[in-house]
């Protein structure tokens, strides 16, 4: 099996091989498909696995994203995508060979983090990835949607949005211009775990709604000065369900106003919020805490560290402390012991031969890195080994982010 990099000329064969791996035919706009996701592929970052007689049997790619780390630190991150191996050639090491080639290539480019969304949770841990952000669906029946705080009265010019002084305007997706892109970009810079959505994605409509041009209503929230600071993209389908693709807001007041807007929609029996973080304020804002039914609780972004000291010193920290981490990276055949010292929001991370406080696999370090998984949970799960009392509690305090990480970008 040979792994070879691709160029723009390989786009058709790459996409064709990938579709065959998933057993699907491409959806065309005429068939109700919306946007062509592969138009954003970066063909100079893709790989094809080829048989000895020159047939393509496997694909893998990467997007150039920026990831927001705790402390509002923006770093480059490779968004691994388009992974597939033909059913006729599975379990012969094609994916392993592509993963190895890709990790080497990312390092050669000077990148120190890669991320992905996993189709199945059993695939990627062996390659050093760990689940790091989580998402769930929140379904609220409209008859139970009363807020615990009363709604302020609105006027025709400034519809009521709660206690905030902004307003909500209803647009069609096609009327939004660059509003969504701008609001999303401001939001993601302050949200740990969020990924950038490069301009070309919006220009090419290369994703899921609301990046794609699929018909959607967009409730745009504007602040008191008329500047857009949030939006909710939604559609209504049977049985009288309003489904919100995503609610993006740069502050809590705008989020609340948008939640009130969709929950106040007439002729709807329930509102489904598709991608909410696990600790979401909306459930607390409703008078009836049980009104919001949680489902579809699952992992979203998986993180892989390619350079432990660089990754640990890049993020922001919120508690001082010192930990010795013994990190095993079996896929790359590497092992390192590091002294992590955090002072005044910054970390130092250097090799050490001191006795370790915690021993962990690089995939578990990926899981705790953004602050969305408590190290003590992984100690209790038997993944991380703690070598002294109090080490897991200190690690919990150290790795916590300013707020739970969340990612809702699909790629
Ligand atoms: C997932 C997929 C790419 C794996 O490719 P592959 O070439 O068969 O993987 P490899 O042969 O390199 O497997 C390496 C190891 O991972 C294991 N593995 C691979 N895919 C697995 C899966 N879906 N579930 C459980 N284990 C899996 C293999 O058993 C093997 O284990 P071993 O080393 O102990 O023998 C392939 O099954 C596929 O294309 N699936 C459909 C598309 C898909 O889900 N893509 C991922 C998108 S995120």
UniProtKB/TrEMBL annotation:
<feature type="active site" description="Proton donor">
    <location>
        <position position="124"/>
    </location>
</feature>
<dbReference type="InterPro" id="IPR025559">
    <property type="entry name" value="Eis_dom"/>
</dbReference>
<dbReference type="InterPro" id="IPR022902">
    <property type="entry name" value="NAcTrfase_Eis"/>
</dbReference>
<feature type="active site" description="Proton acceptor; via carboxylate">
    <location>
        <position position="411"/>
    </location>
</feature>
<dbReference type="InterPro" id="IPR016181">
    <property type="entry name" value="Acyl_CoA_acyltransferase"/>
</dbReference>
<dbReference type="GO" id="GO:0030649">
    <property type="term" value="P:aminoglycoside antibiotic catabolic process"/>
</dbReference>
<dbReference type="InterPro" id="IPR051554">
    <property type="entry name" value="Acetyltransferase_Eis"/>
</dbReference>
<dbReference type="Pfam" id="PF13527">
    <property type="entry name" value="Acetyltransf_9"/>
</dbReference>
<keyword id="KW-0808">Transferase</keyword>
<keyword id="KW-0012">Acyltransferase</keyword>
<dbReference type="Pfam" id="PF17668">
    <property type="entry name" value="Acetyltransf_17"/>
</dbReference>
<feature type="binding site">
    <location>
        <begin position="119"/>
        <end position="120"/>
    </location>
    <ligand>
        <name>acetyl-CoA</name>
    </ligand>
</feature>
<feature type="domain" description="N-acetyltransferase">
    <location>
        <begin position="1"/>
        <end position="154"/>
    </location>
</feature>
<protein>
    <submittedName>
        <fullName>UPF0256 protein</fullName>
    </submittedName>
</protein>
<comment type="similarity">
    <text>Belongs to the acetyltransferase Eis family.</text>
</comment>
<feature type="binding site">
    <location>
        <begin position="83"/>
        <end position="85"/>
    </location>
    <ligand>
        <name>acetyl-CoA</name>
    </ligand>
</feature>
<feature type="binding site">
    <location>
        <begin position="91"/>
        <end position="96"/>
    </location>
    <ligand>
        <name>acetyl-CoA</name>
    </ligand>
</feature>
<comment type="subunit">
    <text>Homohexamer; trimer of dimers.</text>
</comment>
<dbReference type="InterPro" id="IPR000182">
    <property type="entry name" value="GNAT_dom"/>
</dbReference>
<dbReference type="GO" id="GO:0034069">
    <property type="term" value="F:aminoglycoside N-acetyltransferase activity"/>
</dbReference>
<dbReference type="InterPro" id="IPR036527">
    <property type="entry name" value="SCP2_sterol-bd_dom_sf"/>
</dbReference>
<dbReference type="Pfam" id="PF13530">
    <property type="entry name" value="SCP2_2"/>
</dbReference>
<dbReference type="InterPro" id="IPR041380">
    <property type="entry name" value="Acetyltransf_17"/>
</dbReference>
